[in-house]
Amino acid sequence: MFIRAYLRASTDDQNAARAKEELIKFAKEHDHTIASFYIENISGTKLDRPELHRLLNDSQEGDVILLEQVDRLTRLKANDWELLKRRIADEGLLIVSQDLPTSYQMLTTSNDSDFMNSMFKAINSMMLDMLAAIARKDYEDRRRRQTQGIAKAKSDNKYTGRKADDKRHTEVIKYRNANHTLNEVAKLTGYSKATVCRILADAKEA
Fold first, then answer.
1. Which of 10, 97, 125, 192 is labelled catalytic?
2. pLDDT at 110
3. Is residue 183 a contact partner of residue 196, using CB atoms and an 8 Å limit?
């Protein structure tokens, strides 16, 4: 059994690796070591995620996909979630998430009967579907409220768009001017390399 941790954040400005140490600690508490990490900045509403598919391609039957929360794996629509879940099942992979205690059983080498193992898997699958549905609803609710808020601000002539983090942008330029590499600047500021490049390009154009 290999433990493969999947970490995701929705935007380039967020730190997708934020939960890495927490997952390492969690695995250790269950007498396991994480074999590899798959980290990406991309929306959980998208089925086409390079690092997620690399994880699935690398995995073998019996491997575990370790998550901080189920919504890191999916905020997908129901049909897309079914496609992803079916592929995970076809590959013989197990999902363990910190916010899903029923999944912890997957980390143990139990001598329980086939009946008990089947029961645990059925319960875990049901709970996983529930959390996936909640994650999708949370995404849709937030998008709806955001749209309503923008519409109200526009009607009141108060909408200014999303404001850049001027302090962090200044840090990007400062570190780059100090001859740090793009990777070093990304690490120092917490931005992704793509965001660093965009900030530098905007600064140059200005």
1. 10
2. 59
3. no
Q: Which pLDDT value is given to residue 141? A: 92
Q: Kindly report the backbone phi and psi dihedral angles of residue 152, in degrees, each rounded to the nearest multiple of 5, phi listed first.
A: -65, -45
Q: Is 141 exposed, middle or buried (0-12, 13-18, 19+ CB in 10 A)?
A: exposed
The span from the CA of 112 to the CA of 1, in Å, is 18
For residue 198, the model assigns a pLDDT of: 84
Instruction: Check residue 48 and give its pLDDT.
Output: 93
Neighbours of 3 (CB within 10 A): 20
Coil, helix or strand for 5?
Answer: strand
H helix or E strand, kind and range, residue 3: strand 3-9
What angle, rounded to 10 degrees, do the helices at 182-189 and 193-205 form? 100
Task: Please confirm, yes or no, whether 97 is among the known catalytic residues.
Answer: no
CA atoms of 197 and 195, how far apart (whole Å): 5
List, for the chain, all residue ranges whose pLDDT scores fall below the cut of 70: 109-112, 159-165, 167-168, 205-206
Per the CB < 8 A criterion, the answer to whether 68 and 104 are in contact is no
Planar angle of CA 37, 41, 42, nearest 5 degrees: 115
Q: How far apart are CA 185 and CA 205, in angstroms?
A: 19
> Which strands, in side-by-side order, build the sheet including 94-97?
34-41, 3-9, 64-67, 94-97
What's the pTM?
0.73
